[in-house]
Specification:
There is one protein chain. By secondary structure, this protein is α+β, with helices and mostly antiparallel strands. Helices cover 17% and strands 30% of the residues. The strands form 14 sheets. Strands 18, 19, 20, 21, 22, 23 and 24 form a 7-stranded mixed sheet that branches. A hairpin with a 6-residue loop joins strand 38 and strand 39. It is globular.
Length: 1458
């Protein structure tokens, strides 16, 4: 009943708003009849009578105030019904009067204009002049006279000043139509159009098209967007005629809706438009167009082609909900409104919230429909939305009446304008920067670069439309500028004007050839969201900017301007990013698109990206540069252009090979102001490729704040120095970096140094495979907004002393390109040797040797002619002949002996000192007396005291709680402010190369010697650091130092080739006398429970350093491997094929679980197994544990399964990034009490192979390190369910027994498997036992599991919200990082051919199971992609999969339909 009353009220209120204006004299039939009114009245009265009885019957259920209120309300409602009934009676008489008017039986003065087919809106403002107004009216009268007799006409005069409005009364030109003046006047074009619409909607004439002709000479100053849109959605065809030069062309275009109905004329030339207007009216006035019952409009946008989508249904306007709103739906709307298509589909009430009805929800258009009324939906009025979900669109705007032709890029070309559906050129007379500025702005470019005349972009072929154009630069359109008028010129096409506008794309906040992508769109610069950003998109950007292409596409954490576009989807062939499909930015963007472009200069054939033969690109071809006149200034320009800080040196000709293309440049002469070598003066060349120049640029990486040249914080140069985040940093990443910096390899990498490098973070979550030549080739997250700590490394030094009796002496060897070699003695002297010693950390040189005194070695001679100045920080910084360029033999190999202590220079005071040992002070000892000696300084006494710092209570010799010797006692250090810099000083003081971690130990409240220690990291002793003495606290400082032994070359951290460090050099151990006892000492020193196996024949590959020790014979009681007896260092007759290898027992295990891959996590520490608190325990921590145990990863965390009361645990607040090799590499706190202990369920050693998706395949299990199959005897769906649940799938769909997934190739492990429904693990199911079967691989079983991904809330099975089965339950996927590649993986996992669309929908701020998926497209499951767990966000990832395709066609648009 209420709906009926509301609808009737709207109808009646609309019918009462009639205006008595001017009526035509022609006869017509009324659109509303008495019958219509009577029917409405009868319906109303019937509704009233039925509801009176219904409500009265229900009132008996209420008592007291409730009944009284309802009776009052009912009386009011029925009173309103009676009032409405009276209004209908009143309206019936008005309908009868209207019928008399249109039939000609009533005086015209009393008639409404409700019968009109054509209405003229005439500018009647006093500013137009009385004579000109008369001309307007004469033009209108002529038009009316020339129309067919059955076309009904009317005239409305409007003005911004009603008092200053010309009158139509008794106007002789309109006498034939008996017109009256519009008594109310009008206040603007917009209001006048609204008045006209009201009249048209009353005429009720079928078979007619309503026409509105607007004549104006000025700018209205009001918003005509909504009235003009309403006119078109009401079926009215509108013409706009601009009179004179004051009109606003953009406003006229909004009114007309299309260029073909927009005219410009002077008063005197109005009559030239007579035929165009009358033909337009007559050709469409009898085409049986009627106002449709369903209409669409856009509201709330800044232009007519964008806004909130509203539809009119049964006469009532309402909105559309954004559930599943996508570009297909938006395209249908836009084409329905007469546009070419949609640019963007917007959600979340982007254009503001509507009011009233929500007519449509869950709209699903295919994109081919003529109207959204024909699309699939929930049905009219059926929805579950609020107006905060109102859908919006941005349609492809109608083309501007100006274009640029024949240019290379869209932003340049010959200027052409559109007039009366004809394109023509503009003559260059008076053509200047102001004119070009208007053109560029009208075409939405940022500004002008150059103005051209003389047909610079070629001669046009159509008419010359404009000449003597003179803009002031502020006009909205070129057509608004002063000119001779259309077709008035004295030019030829050789004078066609042209323009080059500024590119609507730029790179900001980056390096020389890269940065955040910004585009100029609708008058402003903005960034692009990273969603779906890929190399195809980046390539288009770079080519548009003049580069050869893109080097990399990546993301920046925060934009420098508001995002404008999202989900860019280029195919790579576009000439501009503006040509690529996209989605309008919808309110959320976590990362912004960034590119690195291929510059027109490159370095080739080098061992690193920043060295090589110099090549430049010219006219699409790469060529070399001749070295004539080429100097460091030129090289600096090249290196800076490539994004490096500077040039280190110029290589000798041919050092990087000889080129094969053209030699493009010679005698290059750059200065420091040039930004590209192609800008520098040069000459034609007369060189050969023997003169090809090569350059060594400074590396874009450096090690900062280290204790020596081969260690420190990892910093990267990207438009300025920044640092690499510690998240995910590991030994593989560190090794790539060290090799890139020219070191032989890595000593140690640590990701939680508690220090931060220079500038902003550049890289995060670096993940190398180990095969990369540069850290820049590794996967990484670029430009994170913040990270706590920086990555650090200690590389293997690139110089060493070998074959000496002491660590401070030996043959000098250097490393280059992974090869160790010797140094020749030509030009060698003590200055060179002093640089070597200081590089190695000694105070200076004691002696040097030039004749192979420490052995000649059998290595390559790498360097000759070294000539250091003495100020260099490394021998490799000294000038030389270059690598592999020498003129000597091995008997000239250099040797060095460094001094351990600096040689004294003062007097020698004492000699003959003879202490007994009981003296309190040294000065109490007997001696010869002061200055009584015959010694020289080479006899100076040297003493090495026991250190004042030690480690206690650790799991090994290089870790533990720190103690200092203070005031005669050993004492703890309080952990307040304790960090990595403090730990690093401690470790170096103890003789280690540095610290691996700084720890906090929980203890009882007690005295400590030191507190609040603040080391800079450069001190030689902890007691040199500022600190507070004599404090009390309950947490003590601890460290783990970088141990002098390691396992290398293994697949896991607990196995590998044994390597030890001696005198700063890493080397191997020979297998002579080696046994399990020796290996057990090593494992325990490394923190493992013991040895699992040992190997004596290069099981883990051969080492490439020296063989340091042989004949090791440990007893098993040693606390350190270095306490074991052995031969002297470097004394052996072994080869590297005897290198020792070790495999230790795991130092992490699972206990008390339902299966061997599930349980409470325990870690081995200081000789005992300890638990972990659940504080902060998550899937990333669990994943590290499972991978460390040899499983593929974690399936779920166990946080409430192991209650042990309030008891001690070793670790708490574990914070893994997910990339660590071991749980011990993760950040954590030590020694905490808690109730619940952490556990995991790992992905079991069972897999599906040979399937098309991740959910199906041949069942394979892993046993004794080998994968094998299961035989089909007794196999059924219960067994299949056990397998699927073991794999973390929701369940099983089918048990396969016929080898559908192909035969396996390994052993057949199990047969006669007989699981029950209650099994906790497939491995607990009864069977014949391993290897006990007589099967063949043709009997291999398989399963089809229910997928771990599903679509929900969609209109069909291939569209909806994406959910994943995670940690034993279903959870949503957040749209952060969601793109088409990720959607493709999901669709293929669900059995579809791929994804049609990836989108998102607002679902409220909550926790989502999975976020930031980063798929490469080859994964079988979304869970195989890089991702994050448990992220809070507001937008749900959605998609639509492909369900149809065309195959075997010769083009994408044809083929067999499947």
């Amino acid at each position: 009943m209420v709906k009926f009353l509301v609808a009737l009220l709207i109808l009646l209120n609309g019918m009462n708003q009639w205006h008595v204006i001017i009526a035509s004299s022609s006869s017509c039939s009324a659109g509303l009849s008495q019958k219509d009114g009577l029917v409405a009245k009868l319906l109303l009265e019937r509704e009233r009578d039925q509801n009176i009885n219904y409500i009265k019957n229900r009132l008996d259920y209420f008592e007291g105030a409730g009944r009284e209120f309802l009776e009052t309300l009912t009386t009011a409602i029925f009173g309103r019904i009676d009032e409405l009934s009276y209004k209908i009676d009143e309206l019936l008489s008005r309908v009868e009067q209207l019928g008399d008017c249109c039939n000609g039986s009533s005086p015209a003065d009393n008639c409404s204009m409700g019968c009109a087919d054509v209405i003229f809106l005439v500018d009647g403002s006093g500013s137009i002049g009385a004579t000109d107004f008369a001309e307007e009216i004469n033009f209108v009268a002529d038009l009316i006279d020339s129309l067919p007799s059955d076309v009904h006409s009317g005239v409305i005069v409007f003005s911004s000043n009603v008092e200053d409005m010309y009158s139509l009364t008794n106007n002789p030109s309109l006498a034939t139509i008996r017109s009256l003046n519009y008594p109310g006047g009008g206040t603007s074009i917009g209001n006048a159009i609204t008045v006209a619409i009201d009249e048209f909607t009353m005429n009720g004439r079928s078979g007619c098209v309503d026409h509105l002709i607007v004549l104006t000479d000025g700018i209205s100053g009001d918003d005509v967007t909504l009235p003009s849109t309403d006119a078109r959605t009401s079926g009215i065809i509108t013409y706009s005629i601009g009179i004179g030069g004051r009109v606003d062309q953009a406003e006229l275009l909004l009114i007309a809706g299309h260029h073909s109905r927009l005219f410009n004329a002077s008063i005197s030339s109005l009559r030239l438009l007579h035929n165009d207007i009358t033909n337009g009216i007559c050709n469409s006035s009898h085409t049986n167009l009627t106002i449709p019952p369903f209409q669409v409009r856009l509201v709330g946008g800044t232009t007519e082609y964008e806004g909130r989508v509203e539809v009119r249904y049964h006469g009532i306007w309402g909105t559309v909900c954004d559930d599943y709103w996508d570009l297909n739906d938006a395209s249908v709307v836009c084409r329905e409104l007469g546009y070419e298509g949609a640019e963007s589909a917007l959600t979340g009430a982007y254009f503001g919230q509507g009011s009233g009805a929500i007519w449509l929800d869950n709209l699903f258009c295919t994109g081919t429909e003529d109207s959204i009324a024909n699309c699939s939906s929930s049905g009219f009025g059926i929805h579950s939305c609020g107006h905060y979900e109102d859908a919006g669109v941005v349609c492809i705007p109608p083309p501007a009446p100006v274009r640029l032709q024949n240019g290379t890029f869209p932003y340049e070309g010959r200027v052409e304008v559109l007039y009366n559906d004809t394109w023509g050129t503009v003559c260059d007379d008076y053509w200047d920067f102001n004119d070009a500025e208007v053109v560029c702005r009208e075409l939405d470019f940022p500004g002008v670069v150059h103005v051209f005349g003389g047909a610079y972009y070629g001669e046009g072929s159509g008419p010359i439309l404009l000449d003597d154009v003179q803009c002031n630069g502020s006009e909205a359109s070129l057509l608004n500028c002063s000119s001779n008028g259309f077709f008035v010129h004295n030019c030829g096409h050789y004078e066609d004007a042209g323009v080059r506008c500024q590119q609507p794309i730029r790179l900001v906040n980056g390096s020389e050839h890269g940065g955040i992508v910004e585009i100029f769109y609708r008058g402003t610069w903005g960034s692009i969201c990273y969603n779906s950003w890929d190399m195809a998109d980046a390539d288009v950007v770079c080519r548009e900017l003049g580069y050869a292409g893109a080097r990399k596409a990546f993301a920046y954490r925060s934009g420098y301007s508001p995002p404008i576009k999202d989900y860019i989807n280029c195919n790579g062939s576009e000439s501009s990013i503006m040509e690529c499909p996209y989605t309008r930015y919808t309110g959320y963007c976590s990362y912004y698109a960034e590119v690195s472009c291929i510059p027109p200069v490159r370095l080739t054939n080098g061992s690193t990206p920043y060295e090589g033969r110099l090549e430049v690109m010219y006219s699409g071809e790469w060529g070399t540069v001749c070295d004539n006149g080429f100097d460091l200034i030129d090289a600096n320009v090249v290196c800076k252009e490539l994004g490096y800080t500077s040039a280190e040196r110029i290589a000798t000709p041919g050092a990087f090979g000889f080129g094969s293309g053209p030699i493009l440049l010679e005698d290059v002469d750059c200065n420091k102001f040039h930004t590209s070598i192609l800008e520098c003066p040069s000459s034609n060349n007369s060189c050969s490729h023997m003169n090809d120049v090569g350059i060594h640029c400074s590396a874009p990486f450096r090690l900062a704040s280290g204790s020596n040249y081969y260690s420190g914080i990892v910093e990267i140069y990207y438009g300025g120095w920044g640092h690499v985040c510690s998240n995910g940093w590991d030994v593989i990443d560190g090794d790539v970096l060290c090799r890139e910096l020219g070191f032989p390899g890595l000593q140690s990498a640590y990701g939680y140094s508690y220090r931060r490098g220079t500038g902003r973070p550049i890289l995060n979550y670096v993940s190398c495979t180990g095969n990369e030549s540069s850290i820049l080739d590794c996967y990484a997250q670029h430009n994170p907004s913040y990270c706590s700590y920086s990555a650090e490394v200690i590389c293997q030094p690139s110089i060493r002393l070998v074959n000496g009796d002491m660590p401070n002496q030996g043959r000098l060897e250097v490393s280059y390109n992974g090869e160790w070699g010797t140094v020749c003695a030509n030009e060698w002297d003590l200055i060179d040797a002093d640089v070597v010693c200081k590089t190695l950390g000694y105070p200076g040189v004691e002696d040097t040797f030039m004749s192979g005194e420490f052995g000649t070695g059998n290595r390559t001679i790498l360097i000759d002619g070294v000539d250091c100045s003495g100020n260099e920080t490394s021998l490799l910084d000294c000038p030389s002949e270059g690598y592999y360029r020498y003129n000597c033999l091995h008997d000239q190999t250099v040797g060095v002996q460094c001094s351990e202590f600096e040689l004294a220079s003062g007097p020698i005071l004492l000699d003959g000192v003879d202490c007994s040992g009981n003296e309190t002070f040294f000065f109490d000892c007997p001696s010869n007396g002061y200055n009584n000696n015959n010694c020289s300084h080479d006899q100076d006494v040297e003493i090495k005291c026991q250190g004042r710092v030690r480690l206690v209570g650790g799991n090994d010799t290089y870790s533990g709680e720190v103690e200092v010797f203070y005031q005669g006692y050993w004492s703890d250090i309080c952990s307040y402010s304790w960090d990595y810099r403090d730990a690093d000083v401690v470790c170096r003081e103890l003789g280690y190369s540095g610290a691996m971690a700084a720890y906090v130990y929980r203890s009882y409240y007690s005295y400590t010697a030191l507190s609040n220690v603040y080391c800079t990291g450069n001190e030689s002793s902890l007691l040199d650091c500022p600190a507070r003495y004599n404090s009390y606290c309950s947490s003590k400082a601890g460290v783990t130092c970088i141990p002098p032994l390691r396992l290398s070359g293994g697949n896991e951290k607990r196995e590998g080739r044994l390597e030890i460090q001696y005198a700063g050099i890493w080397g191997t151990v020979c297998a002579n006398e080696w046994d399990l006892i020796d290996a057990d000492v090593v494992c325990k020193e490394l923190g493992y429970p013991g040895v699992e196996d040992t190997f004596m024949s290069d099981e883990f590959g051969t080492g490439n350093g020296p063989i340091l020790i042989d004949g090791v014979e440990c007893s098993g009681n040693e606390t350190s491997f270095f306490d074991c007896p052995s031969n002297e260092y470097n004394t052996n007759n072994c080869s590297h094929d005897q290198d020792v290898g070790i495999k230790c027992f795991e130092r992490i295990r699972l206990v008390n679980g339902a299966s061997f891959y599930s349980g409470k996590v325990e870690v081995y520490y200081n000789g005992a197994w300890e638990s972990i608190c659940t504080n902060g325990w998550d899937m990333m921590d669990a994943d590290v544990v499972c991978r460390e145990l040899g499983f593929h990863g974690a399936m779920r965390t166990l946080t409430n399964d192991f209650y042990e009361g309030y008891t001690y645990s070793l670790f708490t607040s574990v914070g893994c990034s997910g990339h660590e090799e071991s749980l011990f590499d993760c950040s954590k706190s030590y020694f905490e009490y808690c109730y619940y202990k952490a556990g995991v369920t790992c992905i079991p050693p069972i897999r599906l192979a040979g399937g098309n998706t991740a959910n199906e395949g041949r069942v394979e299990i892993k046993y004794d390190g080998e994968w094998g199959t299961v035989c089909n005897n007794g196999w059924d769906v219960t067994d299949a369910v056990a397998v699927c649940k073991e794999l973390g799938q929701p369940g099983a769909e089918k048990a396969v027994t016929s080898g559908d997934f192909g035969p396996g190739s390994g052993p057949i492990f199990l047969d006669e498997v007989d699981c029950s429904e209650n099994e906790t693990s497939f491995f607990n199911c009864p069977s014949n036992g391993y290897y006990n079967n007589t099967c063949s691989h043709s009997q291999d079983v398989g399963v089809i599991c229910s997928p771990k991904v599903r679509l929900v809330n969609g209109p069909n099975n291939y569209t909806g919200d994406v959910e994943v089965f995670y940690d034993g339950s279903w959870g949503s996927v957040c749209s952060y990082g969601w793109d088409l590649t990720d959607a493709n993986v999901v669709c293929r996992e669900l059995g579809f051919d791929g994804a049609k669309e990836a989108s998102n929908i607002y679902r409220g701020y909550r926790r989502y199971a999975l976020s930031y998926p980063y798929c490469n497209g080859t994964e079988l499951s979304i869970l195989d992609c890089n991702h994050q767990y448990n992220v809070y966000c507001s937008y749900q990832a959605t998609l639509s999969c492909n369900v149809i395709r065309l195959v075997n066609g010769s083009s994408p648009g044809e083929g067999r339909l499947e």
